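Anyone have tokens for Glutathione S-transferase? Sequence:
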Amino acid sequence: MTLPILHHFDASPFSEKIRLLMGYKQLTWGSVQVPRIMPKPALVPLTGGYRRTPVMQLGRDIYCDTALIARTLERRQPSPTLLPPAQLASIAALEQLADRQLFLAAVPLLLRPAGRQALVERLGEAFVARFQQDRAELFASGSTGRPDEAFSRQVLKPTLALLEAQLTAAPFMLGVAPTLADFALYHPIWYLRHNPAGASELDGHPRLLDWYERMAAFGHGRPQEMPAQEALTVAAGCRQWQPLPGDFDCTLELAAGRRVAMAATDYGTEPVTGELIHVGPESMTLARHDETIGVVRVHFPRQGFAVCALD
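Reply: yep, here.
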């Protein structure tokens, strides 16, 4: 089976979601470190310019957005399951709560005085200034504006209280076993725990902190450090494609072979262009040619992303 390669950086909360999922599935995976901010020259040949972290690579197939990465890993190794059919709607709702509420409410805390000072001590004032500019550009377009302190005050404490109550009767969010909802909610809590300006927000939530420790105990599986150039070599040398899930969905009125652009609609909306290959129930795929590694396929989720014809 093709080794999954995760392009990530250690402090990335969305990457932690996938690293922990790798641990729960006890997977061996390639670990490629990418820069925190643009430019990412060793990643662009694979993605065509998609800027968000992480990205997963299977040979010459590239998967963007953790919702799609998680479901792709689930298809490859369905046991133990993270998507029990009777809980799919609840999982989807909690994923939205994690990504659209809790994570965005946690973001401004990083640049509170204590959080910013910790960043400066680790990375230097010049890098932190570039980091702030990069994140401003990330939220410069799309439907989701850059979250601010007012949003955090409105959302963070009530959401943490909801999660504390959710854990009253069971060790995981939806029962006695973790689902994808737990991994989606884990990463913003992990982000708070590792932020000097955010960790105290979890005080007074003992069930949530116990759940966090149960989740963290899954670990990261078996990562194998890999230089970026080796990942490019893997893509260039691969002679097979990953299966495309489901029949081609014609409801978007775009035929295979059409030149298209795909992009996130919320933030980080830089488009990736190429030839439309597939539109499935949950994902969209285009093929693009890179002069250094040849043709790759880039996969995006349908939810939260848009596709448009270029001709």
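The domain at 85-216 is CATH 1.20.1050.10 (Glutathione S-transferase Yfyf (Class Pi); Chain A, domain 2).
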